[in-house]
Design a protein that fits this description.
The chain is mostly helical. The chain folds into two domains: 58 residues; 67 residues, no CATH class. It contains five helices and no strands. Helix 1 runs antiparallel to helix 2 and helix 3 packs antiparallel against helix 4. The longest helix is centred in the N-terminal third of the chain and has 26 residues.
């Protein structure tokens, strides 16, 4: 099985799950009852079709599979470790987003991801960007646009 086949199958699964999740959203209480469902269902459908297209194209391709195209699992490279850590940070962000609130969870997430990219050399810049971005977006949405983001229950703010 090649990387293209794996990618196509995963894209199909995500597309179907996303479409199903969008389809099961509750109806809107005002306006069009299904208006907010149409766009996410279309995105999930397009992702499913693109994954199917990639899988079918790979399945129909002629000739032997190139050895480089087949996935090799074993010791992670440096880039593989960075990707794995970014995935772990993203899952952690999703888990702590509501309990810690937007600002704290986003500072931690951005700090972790920027640390992966920048390393120890630019630690001050990483912390500064993570804090300023998180607070800036919170102020933009909460104060200027009136859209509430999850508050910080730990600090009761």
């Amino acid at each position: 099985m090649t990387w293209n086949m794996i990618t196509g199958l995963v894209a199909m699964l995500i597309g179907v799950a996303y479409s199903w999740g969008a389809w099961t959203l509750p109806q809107a209480s005002f306006g069009s009852p299904t208006g907010h469902i149409i766009y996410p269902v279309m995105l999930g459908g397009i992702m499913t079709l693109l994954g199917l297209s990639l899988s079918v194209r790979e399945w129909l391709s002629k000739g032997k599979a190139d050895a480089k195209a087949s996935p090799k699992f074993g010791k992670l490279t440096r880039h593989g470790r960075e990707i794995a850590l970014a995935i772990v940070a993203s899952v952690g962000y999703a888990l702590v987003f509501k309990p810690l609130g937007y600002v704290i969870s986003t500072v931690l997430y951005l700090g972790a991801v920027l640390f992966l990219v920048n390393g120890r050399e630019k630690l001050t810049r990483t912390v500064l960007v993570a804090v300023l971005f998180s607070v800036g977006v919170y102020v933009l949405f909460s104060v200027l646009l009136g859209i509430q983001l999850p508050r910080m229950p730990i600090l009761d703010i």
